[in-house]
Fold this sequence. Notes:
The complex is a heterodimer of chains A (186) and B (440).
Chain A: H1 26-36, H2 46-56, H3 63-73, H4 77-84, E1 98-103, H5 106-110, H6 113-124, E2 137-142, E3 154-156, E4 159-161, H7 166-177
Parallel strand pairs in A: 1-2
Antiparallel strand pairs in A: 1-3, 3-4
Chain B: E1 2-5, H1 24-29, H2 34-42, H3 45-54, H4 67-72, E2 83-88, H5 97-104, H6 106-120, E3 124-129, H7 134-149, E4 165-170, H8 180-187, E5 211-215, H9 216-228, H10 230-236, E6 244-251, E7 257-262, E8 265-266, H11 268-275, E9 285-289, E10 298-299, E11 309-310, H12 312-317, E12 326-331, H13 336-350, H14 356-376, H15 381-390, H16 400-414, H17 416-423
Helix pairs in contact in B: 2-6, 2-9, 3-6, 5-6, 6-9, 9-10, 13-14, 13-16, 14-15, 15-16, 16-17
Amino acid sequence: MSQQFTPNNPLPQEAKVPDEIAVFSPEVEAEIDRHLAKYPVRRSAILPLMFIVQRERGGHLDPPGVAYLADRLGVRITDIWEVATFYSMINTEPVGRYHFQICKTLSCKILGANRITKHCAERLGIKPGETTGDGMFSLSEVECLGSCGTAPMMQIGFDYYENLTTEKVDDIINKCRGGELPNGVR
Amino acid sequence: MFIGAIGCEPLQLRRVHLENSRSLDVYRKNGGYEALRKVLDSMSPADVIEEVKRSALRGRGGAGFPTGMKWGFVPKDSPKPKYVVCNADESEPGTFKDRYLMERDPHLLVEGMLIAAYALGARTNYVYTRGEYRYLIEIMDAALAEARAAGLLGEKILGTDFSAEIYTHTGAGAYICGEETALLNSLEGLRGHPRMKPPFPAVAGLYGCPTVVNNVETLTAVPDIILMGGDAYKALGTEKSGGTKLWSVSGHVNRPGVYELPMGYDDMERFIMEDCQGITGGRQLKAVIPGGSSVYIMPASDIVGKDVRMDYEGLVAAGSSVGSGGFIVMDDTVDVFESTKNLTEFYKHESCGWCTPCREGTDWLVKVFKRIEAGGGRPDDAQLLLDIVDNIEGKSFCPLGDAASWPIQSAIKKFPEDFRRRLARESPNGGGTKEGLPTA
């Protein structure tokens, strides 16, 4: 790459460059520095940094967060979007505080994943791919999460909930509503 | 869920049930880091590679490539830095063994990686873990910090001239990143597209430098190979498949879990019916996918009474392969048309989009499956699926296309009745009422 386009050095032609860059606390900056120190090439830290920015920006990569990443990693805005849109765990749209991700792949499927999804949909009043109006819950069906021996299962944030039954799901939803469960974002 | 060994003394799983098995203290009290000590005290890097070659250890991630040979491809005289990368992107449907190895015995992986780093002359090394396994990254980070504080990681390890660092790295949800060149692209901060081979990673891998990418189960086998010797390790298994193998058992069995079996365990029927305690609800076995979703499906008739030997050669002879050891058992309630559709949707979702045969082909496969499921099956649809598969298999840029093809080929061949019923619109799910549905 001969030239790096960043918010400080934007594209010569008109392009959509966010006018705002996200700002983070010294603690978060130190966390980011620790990741950058692992690699001889800064760009390698793009995924760990995306998780941090996503966490700090309310659950998804927004344009100021993307501008921050481009600036911090010395790459173009488009490089950030290019990577962000490839990985399913990087959210480019807002998601609910509790993101129910139910595994739908074979082992979970034959042990009742559909029943769990249907139950969640009924209890939360949303279909897979939707978020509740209050921004509290999102529901997704996802591919194999490596929990086949404890199927059916789901992930909320970064936490696994295994050997699910409809009763367990009810308990989880109640605990989320009561603020007793961590939302797993870290 | 069961975790343990059957038919042999537990080797890779021997510490998993100890209290505080994650801690450095427990690990060291149970033989931990003795292999590293032995390597640093008395072996040259070439000795280590030779020992791994003698062990007949083959890559446990799925491809089964001989590990010692892979290590031997790294040029000795290259002035570039070298890297060892652990592939902990465990995403093959039905596979969850690496997860428990890392959760219960993280120092075993640290030790295995350090021995590999010594053998290959690597200074900086990475554990690439799938993003969903965040809790394992936290466990690994804690183990690495413990090792660093104890002088087992960093500068002058155990007081010798050997220095090496290991860092954790997170993926972010992409099956393709389990393919080693896609993993390297992802580790360089790019989209996880596979790279053209050659050059192989051993010559030009991470940052264009010589790199070895090994699965968690492969690297965690190394300390025992060093301690007992390659020949003794090999003798646990068979001539061509050395040592033990972890099988992740899921689906309709009474006792799912991670089973460590000697290579060549005889036979698969006994394994399912006795070791895994049979089929849930006393139902009949219908099919097994023995090596993760990407291998040929086996009907019960190829297993029951057939003395199928569970190793690389035995499973190929029985019409499938070891793959990742993700052992999915299905009873007679499963419609193989539906299970194959489920896996095809997986491959469509996980196709990285880089090459046309895989990107377009998997999409078309899902469209055809959906049309048939909705009752729009036609008599020649089985052939149509095979034709599409024929345009993917062997023509895609990386093995993901092949992996998407094999389940369909084997399902149509081994379970023609499940497909015929759909295509003749006799399906139990109301097929046969809707005429000529659009294919999109």
